[in-house]
Design goal:
The complex is a heterodimer of chains A (111) and B (113). With 111 residues, chain A is mainly β. Chain A contains no helices and 11 strands. Helix content of chain A is 0%, strand content 54%. Chain B has 113 residues and is an all-beta fold. Chain B is built from no helices and 11 strands. The chains are: A mainly beta (111), B mainly beta (113). At the A-B interface, strand 5, strand 9 and strand 10 of A face strand 4 and strand 5 of B.
Chain lengths: 111, 113
């Protein structure tokens, strides 16, 4: 069993839709939870970061963590074509430790 | 430079040849990571440097893979006797903070024929 499971998609939605992206993890020692966005042929860039259960909002993006279920989500409201990218969840046991990444979900937002 | 710089951006080599991939991290960043990204496999951790030392080499897939970092800055990942399964994008990231925010380069795309 992988430490982090993520549906690879692809996921195709119309512009303006609400997108839900999810990951599950197996190790309760993981304490830091992140979402990275990766455009084609580019390196990943940090989108959202949290270390506690609950919701964190940033503009159209909301990250949700449920430690009891070992489940993390990223919601994108009013999705735009510019949101088309691969979204990777990443988790860590500590702030300075290596990140364990999910496989990434490829998202396409169509006009 | 402003970001993490990797070279070459693309490398095509023949099976059995050695390759070197270079990473120039953001100035002042003490921690440096190498990851490998294969199609459908996500990012696979290879090695982590703190300064010039590598406290975690657990992700290197075989003894054909090695990496070094000199002067607490530039790092080189070397793959000896390349195999076709080594074909992937090799990503380097650096950070100067004790957080999860890694700053990635654009990667070196390796194709082994």
């Amino acid at each position: 069993q992988k430490e982090v499971e993520q549906d690879p998609g692809p996921l195709s939605v119309p512009e303006g839709a609400i997108v839900s992206l999810n990951c599950t993890y197996s190790n309760s020692a993981f304490q830091y939870f992140m979402w990275y966005r990766q455009y084609s042929r580019k390196g990943p860039e940090l989108l959202m970061y949290t270390y506690s259960s609950g919701n964190k909002e940033d503009g159209r993006f909301t990250a949700q963590v449920d430690k009891s279920s070992k489940y993390i989500s990223l919601f994108i409201r009013d999705s735009q074509p510019s949101d088309s990218a691969t979204y990777l969840c990443a988790i860590s046991t500590g702030g300075g430790n290596k990140l364990t990444f999910g496989t990434g979900t490829q998202l396409k937002v169509e006009l | 430079g402003a970001g993490v710089s990797q070279s070459p951006s693309n490398k095509v080599t023949e099976k059995g040849k050695d390759v070197e991939l270079r990473c120039d991290p953001i100035s002042g960043h003490t921690a440096l990571y190498w990851y490998r990204q294969s199609l459908g496999q996500g990012l696979e951790f290879l090695i982590y440097f703190q300064g010039n030392s590598a406290p975690d080499k657990s992700g290197l897939p075989s003894d054909r893979f090695s990496a070094e970092r000199t002067g607490g800055s530039v790092s080189t990942l070397t793959i000896q006797r390349t195999q076709q399964e080594d074909s992937a994008v090799y990503l380097c990231a650096s950070t100067g903070r004790n957080t999860g925010e890694l700053f990635f380069g654009e990667g070196s795309r390796l194709t082994v024929l």
